[in-house]
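CHAIN AND CONFORMATION:

***
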Amino acid sequence: MKIELLSGAAGWPLVQPLEALVYTPEVLKTWVGRDVKWAQADQRALVRTDEGLLVSHAGAFVRQSEWDGLPVKLGGIGGVVTHPGHRRQGYARAAIKRALTWLHDEPAVAFALLFCEPHNVPYYAKQGWQGFEGAVIVRQPGGTGPFTLFHAMTLAIRNRNALRGTLDLRGEPW
């Protein structure tokens, strides 16, 4: 396995074909996130097989946000996808771990946030993520409001983790 970290813009053309394998037109017809305007990652962790095939991706985000009305520098993990033929081999975990390392290296990031579908909650919980029991406010083309389509989970970065309250992302979800 080979892992690289690229800027969000440089990595996007590489990730698009992988996302197309995961989010086929059939999947997109019923996927709850299909109409969401998602933020673009600041950095992208890409995992390749030893033969060079891109098999997994995790985006990393850093944003000045608000937690219960106070400023907080928030990290994020999003856009996690793995090639359908290469799942359950640790590739996504490796991509997430690399993205989290970048977040740990970013100054003043208090904690990380991700959004996931209900069936993925146990997967992230095994990696130390905890459910966020509060409101997450995001921006979308139709306005600003609570983001309730996915489960929010947080992970401490600098010994500070948010488990409840109101998080205003001051932008689009990831």
Notes: Residues 72 and 151 are 20 Å apart (CA to CA). The chain has one domain: 2-168.
